Amino acid sequence: MRIRRVLAAVIATAALAGVGLAGAATATATTATATTVAPASLTPGECIDGGGTVDRAHLSSAHLPTCKGGKFNGQEVD
Length: 78
Fold this sequence. Notes:
Blueprint: H1 2-33, E1 41-42, H2 44-49, E2 53-59, E3 65-68, E4 76-77
Parallel strand pairs: 1-4
Antiparallel strand pairs: 2-3
């Protein structure tokens, strides 16, 4: 009898985990189809990988360098 309860608990947990994974996959698929939003600030590597250069001559209002050119043009580089 004890084994049945343990087995039932394991199966219920696995079923709930499967539902959670299915929900996470749906949320990820929905997010992937949405437009890509640039992060608040980039790393220098992200700026360069996006096709830009780190411009230390023109600082943002937060006194941070900006990314010049590429897909992150004008974003702050932290």
